[in-house]
Amino acid sequence: MLHTVIEKNSYQDSIVLMLLTNYLETLDGVNNVQVMMGTPANKDIFKTGGLATDELEAATPNDMVIVLDVDNEDLIDDVVKKAKTYLDEQSSGNDDDASGEERVKTWDKALEVAKDAPVALISVPGVYAASEVEKALDAGKNVFCFSDNVTIEDEARLKQMAHEKGLLLMGPDCGTGIANGLPLAFANRVRKGSIGIVGASGTGIQEVTAIIHKMGEGVTNAIGTGGRDLKAQVQGITFKDSIALLDQDPDVKVIVAISKPPAKEVRDDAVDLLRAAKKPVVAIFLGEKPEAHEKGLYRAYTLEETAKIAVGLLHGQEPTGHEDVAVKVPDVTLQPQQKYIKGYYSGGTLAYEAATLMNNTLGLHAENGVDGSILKKDGYEVLDLGDDVFTQGRPHPMIDATKRKEMMVSAGKDPETAAILLDIVLGYGTTDDMAGDLKDTIIKVKADAKAEGRELPVIATIVGTDMDPQDYSQQQKTLESAGVILCENNAQAVKTALAIVGHPVEEKPLPILPEQPSNVKMPAVSDKLKEMLTATRFLNIGLESFADAINESGGSAVQFDWKPIAGGNVELQKALLFLSKVDLKVGV
Amino acid sequence: MVYKSIDEANQAVVSKIIAGSPFLLDVVPAMDVIDEFKHGKVLLHAGPPITYDKMIDPVQGACIGAAMFEGWADNEDDARKLMESGEVTLIPCHHVDAVGPMGGITSAHMPLVVVENRTDGNRAYCTMNEGIGAVLRFGANGPEVIDRLRWMRDVLGPVLSKALQKREPLNVNVLIAKAIAMGDEFHQRNIAASLAFLKEMSPSIVALDIDQKDKEDVIQFLADTDQFFLNIMMASAKSVMDGARQIQEGTIVTAMCRNGYEFGIRIAGMGDEWFTGPVNTPHGLYFSGFSEDDASPDMGDSAITETFGVGGFAMIAAPAVTRFVGTGGFFDALHTSEDMTEITTASNPNFPIPTWDFRGISIGIDARKVVETGILPVINTGIANKKAGLGQIGAGTVNPPMEAFEKAVLAYAKKLGFEE
Questions:
Q1: Residues of chain A contacting residue B290, judged by C-beta atoms under 8 Å apart
Q2: Does B325 score more than 60 pLDDT?
Q3: Residue A95 in this model has a pLDDT that exceeds 70
Q4: Inter-residue contact B99 to B300 (CB < 8 Å)
Q5: What is the DSSP string of B91-119?
Q6: Residues of chain B neighbouring A50 (CB-CB closer than 8 A)
Q7: Interface touch A49/B5, C-beta < 8 Å
Q8: Residue A586 — φ and ψ, nearest 5°?
Q9: CB of A570 within 8 Å of any CB in chain B?
Q10: Mean pLDDT confidence for A372-388
Q11: ipTM of this predicted complex?
Q12: Backbone torsions φ then ψ of B228, nearest 5 degrees
């Protein structure tokens, strides 16, 4: 049954009324509805739409007309009321997307809008990464390259190119960084401060910056180099330029260098460069157990120690050898068959640190693992679940807990398991509530073991800070409520596990040798490189969440929604290249 | 003229677009200015070339209406048979310096607006807007439609012609500049420009020594027809783009149009050649009782407005119609206009947009950039019922097919010596 409602002298824009019509159509009990101003042309449209009524004829062009087909007349008032509410809401405007966010789709436009951005973040598919990095370098940008699958030849070439232009190429495969206090890619929010970091390891940088933050100090710039920088082919180009950059930065008082051991050919150069720094340096070559400090170049064994030595130096305190607080051994009673520690990590460097500590302390003499299995000896096991082997077709374990839960359940059933080690990595790029995702499984694994007469400690650490987008203290509470033994940091967690199985780590203070001479001169630092230290503006090419992280943290990022040229069509790409170079005078 | 690079040629084309100065001179019967009408039965249509059998229902309906209007048949059946016989020659408007809205069906006795681009001395033509509801351009051909066409032929055309002779030719750029500041984007919304046109013309119309009823009818029609200026805009854009495409080098798009079956584009470097792909169906808002299922595929030469830099490209100028971009608001329109800057070559400083911080409209679509970026032009458009005669059922936006741009870029590259 058709009903006509005429609102006299109630002018509304036709588009608003079309939107209103669409909305009213969705209401229950409304068979058909149309809202329009009562112009002669609109009356024709009512008729065409099967909504002609006698009352309609009386409407004037200044009247808003609702013609409504409902079976239940009681609905009419309700519909009219909803229509008015809708119109009120429309006129009050919407706040969506009023941010004036900057978004571009082409290089030309990107370079125009982001001409004042000294750093470009690149996270495009690996096959395109090298050419996009080159474009950014050509445009005079320092580059943070998150993309991986770039050949080492390209990496060496591009880093050399960057160096010659007075620019820095961080990465490829650079997972984290902090620039002027702003998070790059997967990074924690930490306060700004006087410790500068150069690192070839993602979660290594995260762990060290988070510990420094917890100790009340801060990091303004943490430069990632990518994992292959100190290999022989690349010669540590980015590492060296970064050390030079931090050494001349008046805001940096202590430099931290984090890396796997450099290639033999690069090692002397790299260490000599650290010796040449004007500022005290703390270096950690992950996997190596250092023998001695040198004056001005201090060596750490764990990430915890790295952070603590750095903070000590900042306070004018040389390392004492007691940076690692002795762990409190929890009161756990293991059954005789419970011997083995299982570490299920989402952070690669944290897994590596756990494996190193276990290997050295237990004297396992295990080979370096392959394919994400960082340590596998007897029943001891440390897995990097973020390795490609485990992430095929599923999200990274910092985002998705499924694989970790599977591993925990199977380890829990194994009567020889003595303890399970976990990392919860907070910060940009990771999930909102990893503790919540793991909680039920932790409770169940512990309860199942208990039902079989075993106590099964689950030991975890949270890599993150109270400034991270996740709620740090809530994560703590969730884990504690699940019965997790929560440790300050990863080294503490591993040592706790080792203590539980009866193999506490022995702490031995290192001697401090006199300052060693250096034959290396610090590379010169260009102005463009220096701009990175105070960058507030970025060009983000690829994953939008990286731009969001910067914008949320007080910086500004131009988002470049990158797509391969001509949709990846090779023939068209060649034609476009041809057209960009063709000389019309000759060509025609 | 010889250019060193494509960029240089494109810049030259764009300079001509900016320099374009269209003036409305007159309103005259089509056969007076288009010679083709003197050779047998001829109809013009929108878009690239097409045969009658491939035309969609609304365009066929418009052909039938035009046949009856011309007196070639006195009923629909005979008119249809005539069209099917192939006796009527079909020519794209674009081939005779004209453009036509929606179906674009134009016949010998229909009055056309005459616009001259005084920079290059060339002229362009377009029929006049019939208003909304049952109209020929959407395929309606009932008595009401034919009667209106006759009135336009016998009264509206001659009255406007006389009025134009009483005054200086109308400088269209001035109207565009004024109306863009009043919220028109000249495809979906022309109300400000139509009113400005009425303001310019009414003193001359009322001063004419003609039948009082005719005067009143003409003024009433212009007052009622919000989109009247659209057709003047189309002819003006055509005149400017035809002036610019006298430069036969480079990759600037010089025409975009659709015939309901295919979408066609031209680029400067390929002269008169059309590059086509299948038309899309517009997305947008529908009047009650209609949905995308009822929508006719995209048609009309009106995309000449986007080619010129208004319409979808100037979406941000017209906050009142921004919601046709999806159902979003101002910021969607902003994104659309910003996106269009990525495939265009320059801004036209003659037409600053206040809501865009007085940035000029984006001009010179570079076919290379479209292919490179995958960003397609956004065209604002009315949506016709796919059945002839039922008229407009909504309005929205539509994209051209990428294929047309890819073909154009490849063809031009090959012309210049590119080998795969």
A1: 49
A2: no
A3: no
A4: no
A5: EEGGGGTEE-STT--B-TTSEEEEEEETT
A6: 289
A7: no
A8: -85, -40
A9: no
A10: 90
A11: 0.90
A12: -55, -40
Tokens at residue A188, please? 């924690």
Closest Cα in chain A, distance from residue B358 (Å)? 16
Residue A554 touches chain B, beta carbons under 8 Å: no
Q: How far is A553 from chain B (nearest CA, A)?
A: 23
How far CA A568 is from CA of A122, A541, A564, in Å, comes to 18, 17, 5
Per-residue pLDDT of A485-541, as tens digits, reads 999 999 999 999 999 999 998 878 899 999 988 888 898 899 999 999 999 999 999
CA distance B145 to B130: 9
Note the pLDDT tens digit of each residue in A556-583: 999 998 888 888 888 998 999 899 889 8
Quick one: CA torsion of A379, A380, A386, A389, rounded to 10 degrees? -40
| Interface contact A106, partner B, CB < 8 A | yes
B299 close to B384: Cβ distance less than 8 angstroms: yes
User: For B413, which of A50, A579, A588 is closest by C-beta distance?
Assistant: A579
Alpha helices in A105-250 (DSSP H): 107-113, 126-138, 152-164, 202-214, 237-248
Judge whether residue A214 has pLDDT over 80: yes
Q: For chain B, what is the radius of gyration of the CA atoms? A: 20
pLDDT confidence bin for A22, thresholds 50/70/90: confident
Coil, strand, or helix at residue B348? Answer: strand
On whether any CB of chain B is under 8 Å from the CB of A18, the answer is: yes
pLDDT recorded at residue B324: 65
The per-residue pLDDT for A325 is 66
DSSP B194-216: HHHHHHHHHHHHHTS-S-HHHHH
8 Å CB contact of B6 and A582: yes
**Cα separation of A327 and A309, whole Å?**
18
A517 CB within 8 Å of a chain B CB: no
Q: Which two tokens stand for residue A346?
A: 């989402």
A277-292: burial string, b at 16+ Cβ within 10 Å, e else: bebbbbbbbbeeeeee
